[in-house]
Design goal:
The complex is a heterodimer. Chain A is α/β, with parallel strands linked by helices. Chain A contains 3 helices and 4 strands. Helices cover 43% and strands 34% of the residues of chain A. Chain B contains 4 helices and 5 strands. Helix content of chain B is 32%, strand content 29%. Chain B has a single domain, classed as Heat Shock Protein 90. Chain B is of the alpha+beta class. The chains are: A alpha/beta, B alpha+beta. Chains A and B meet through α1, α2 and α3 of A and α1, α2 and α4 of B. The structure holds adenosine-5'-triphosphate and magnesium ion (MG). The site of magnesium ion has 4 residues of chain B, from α2.
């Protein structure tokens, strides 16, 4: 699993690729925390186009990132999520907490 | 004509998180015999990942223990059994509720809910101090033009 960050204005974008599970989730959470703290963005965009797989570990990653952005008064959105990821996120009702495309 | 296929494999591995990816890939490879759709394959991988991760995270909190995954094919039905000899679950009904978790904030309490909704059936047998056996089944639809 890899994550690549790009910043433009007050928008932080994180492109996640590979497979996300418990084995990788902690590192991703910590990296997101670090980058959010450094950039203090208004908006966090998670680009999941390259995400080959996620399980419930991804749910916890999104919820944590959402809370973090909430504390900063910012917002989070998920873009280009593959069908498998969408199905997992929907099972947890995440589409009611943040925009997931 | 379709003949009743019967096949199985058993995998045994230590409860190391690196094996999560291996276990779901192995299950997907095994299930490929049924020529599943990509959606079905995704469902199987997700459910297996949940069951195996639970054995790794919850069954052996402070140690490395043995996890056994058994895959079985009967007709169009894939059966996945994930077994550990870990701490067990005191109240299975409660553990199966959405959002119930005894884990850290890295867990969401959605594992059993996902296994239940992504597979056709889920059975959880557990004994505190002895371990847990999770059995899941999914019928894989044969597509038109398949023999
Ligand atoms: N193999 C197991 N051994 C011991 N306890 C288990 C096992 N599997 C599940 N549990 C217990 O059941 C609870 C619910 O499991 P479930 O998979 O639904 O959620 P979770 O693992 O806590 O979070 P998530 O799967 O969303 O990351 C766990 O928190 C744990 O207490
Ligand atoms: Mg779980």
């Amino acid at each position: 699993m890899t994550v690549t960050f790009t910043e433009s204005g007050r928008c932080l974008s994180a492109a996640v690729s590979g497979e996300l599970d418990h084995h990788h989730a902690k590192a991703l959470m910590e990296e997101l925390d670090r980058q959010i703290d450094a950039a203090m963005p208004r908006r966090l965009v998670l680009d999941l186009a390259g995400l080959g797989f996620t399980d419930s570990s991804g749910i916890a990653v999104l919820i944590r990132a959402m809370r973090r952005m909430g504390q900063l008064g910012g917002e989070i959105r998920v873009e280009r999520a593959p069908e498998q990821a969408k199905k997992v996120f929907r099972a947890a009702g995440l589409q009611r907490l943040m925009p997931i495309e | 004509m379709r003949t009743k296929a019967e096949n199985f494999v058993t995998l045994e591995f230590p409860s190391r998180s690196a094996n999560e990816g291996f276990a779901r890939a192995a299950a997907a490879c095994f299930a490929a015999q049924l020529d599943p759709t990509l959606d079905e394959l995704g469902d199987i991988k997700t459910a297996v990942s949940e069951a195996v991760t639970n054995a790794i995270v919850h069954a052996y909190p402070d140690a490395i223990g043995k996890v056994v995954m058994r895959l079985r094919l009967t007709g169009d039905v894939l059966e996945v059994v994930v077994k550990d000899q870990g701490v067990g679950i005191p109240d299975v009904e409660r553990a199966r509720q959405p959002l119930f978790t005894t884990g850290s904030e890295e867990r969401s309490g959605m594992g059993f809910t996902i296994m239940e909704s992504f597979m056709d059936s889920l059975r959880v047998r557990s004994q505190p101090g002895k371990g847990t056996v999770v059995t899941m089944k999914k019928r894989v639809s044969r597509r038109v033009g398949q023999k």
